[in-house]
């Protein structure tokens, strides 16, 4: 199981180190090579489906219908 935690107090590092020594946990430090994407996801994946104009319009229509379903009262 992988968990991400935020350390609020510096003393927690000692507790984490003790738990790691007891082989209860493994502390992974963030990779220095991990970069945040330079482009927004919408820009990265724009046009990735390679749809024709008619298929794209149908796709957008179905998406809108799905969104409208969420707005309906369910009780």
Quick rundown:
This protein is about 45% helix and about 0% strand.
What would you note in describing this structure?
This protein is mainly α and 75 residues long. It has a domain of 30 residues. It is 44% helix and 0% strand. It contains 3 helices and no strands. The longest helix has 19 residues. It is elongated, with a radius of gyration of 23 Å. The mean pLDDT is 83.
DSSP strand tally:
0
Shape: elongated
Strand portion, in percent? under 5%
Helix content: 40-55%
Mean pLDDT: 83
Low-confidence stretches: none
What is the topological layout?
Elements: H1 12-21, H2 41-44, H3 53-71
Keywords:
single chain, about 80 residues, mainly alpha, about 0% strand
């Amino acid at each position: 199981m992988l968990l991400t935690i935020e350390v609020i107090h510096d003393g927690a590092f000692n507790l984490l180190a003790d738990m790691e020594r007891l082989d209860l946990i493994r502390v992974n430090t963030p990779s220095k090579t991990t970069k945040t994407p330079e482009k927004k996801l919408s820009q990265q994946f724009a046009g990735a489906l390679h749809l024709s104009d008619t298929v794209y319009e149908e796709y957008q229509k179905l998406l809108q219908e799905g969104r409208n379903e969420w707005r309906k009262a369910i009780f």
